[in-house]
Amino acid sequence: MSDDLDKSGRDGENLPAADPIADPGLPEHQWRPTDVDPAQERRAERQVTGMFLTAALLFVLFVVAYFAVEVDAIIFDYSASNIALGVTLGGGLLLIGMGIIQWAKKLMADHEMVEMRHPAASSKEDREAVMKDINAGIEESTLGRRPMIRNSLLLSLGALAAPSVVLLRDLGPLPYDQESTVWEPGMRVVNDVSGLPIRPSEIEVGQLVNAQPAIFFPQDGEEEAEISGHSQLAPKAKAAVIVVRMRPEDITPEAGKENWGIDGILCFSKICTHVGCPISLWERQTHHLLCPCHQSTYDLADNGKVIFGPAHRPLPQLPLMLDSEGYLVAQSDFLDIQGPSYPEIARHQEKLDSES
């Protein structure tokens, strides 16, 4: 416990520094129960030790949960892995903090100190001058005599919270309703820079082309597409794809996807299924696609399967065919959900798979 003596006069007036006072008039020191009762001291020591030991156990359980709890496991509609890791790590840190506080309050040395310090308060004249200016400003604003203005100001400041809700909502799409894009049967796959449609003969083995649906590149005389009355930015980013060509013998399609490519040309979503980063880092020799954000790696020769990194779902594939003029077009929209691997998306994907 520490008490400071102020070397200032009454009302904060600055006076010459005084000599230390032998008896400043402090009340008699009150000893803590742990200072006078050995049983209480031992009890407090056991409490602090118990907190530290429990924290150590929680840290061990954190490591166990990291390896034992399945990432896709769900409890109370939330990720069981996140809950287990958060409770164990957070609980351990909380107990360490509580133990240190109890240790300091009940068991560390308790003695009083008297320490001289310089005056911290402004002089009485300075304080009076500041209050005079404040009161003059309030009086000149007529705030007290105009309740309508005052109340409307308070209402407007309170309503300022509403835009924050909209801005937070606008940070990104919610993790559902992502099962469809603008791709439709017969829609051409076009280069995302030039907007030109793509023929198979224009893509070499090992090449990657960034592409978009033709709806975002109106031809001469066509009006710009309007997507559900919204900005094209979100639908365009969501529908972005990459087109790659491999030797047909290197591709191992899943059952039902044997006719999704054209002579080794396959089309996949450009959106990483981890947190939604755009990806196009292509390793032509290994047929691997690497996400630059967190190094999730997909094998495009094996149906976009994840072979490394934090992603948990394969990269969605867009089925391709040729139109009457020999250009690449979509057979349909993606059959898998686009976007990051939120638990809600994983459950919805399972529902779609069970229904198909």
UniProtKB/TrEMBL annotation:
Mention any Pfam family matching this sequence.
Answer: Rieske
Q: Which residue intervals are annotated with compositional bias (Basic and acidic residues) in the record? A: 1-13, 29-42
The alphabetical list of record keywords is:
2Fe-2S, Cell membrane, Disulfide bond, Electron transport, Iron, Iron-sulfur, Membrane, Metal-binding, Oxidoreductase, Respiratory chain, Transmembrane, Transmembrane helix, Transport
What Gene3D superfamilies does its record include?
Rieske [2Fe-2S] iron-sulphur domain (2.102.10.10)
List cofactor names only.
[2Fe-2S] cluster
Task: Write out the transmembrane intervals.
Answer: 50-69, 81-104
Q: Which InterPro entries match?
A: QcrA_N, Rieske_2Fe-2S, Rieske_2Fe-2S_sf, Rieske_Fe-S_prot, Rieske_Fe-S_prot_C
Which parts form a coiled-coil structure per UniProt?
Answer: none
Family the entry assigns: Belongs to the Rieske iron-sulfur protein family.
Name of the protein this chain belongs to: Cytochrome bc1 complex Rieske iron-sulfur subunit
The record lists the organism as Aeromicrobium halocynthiae
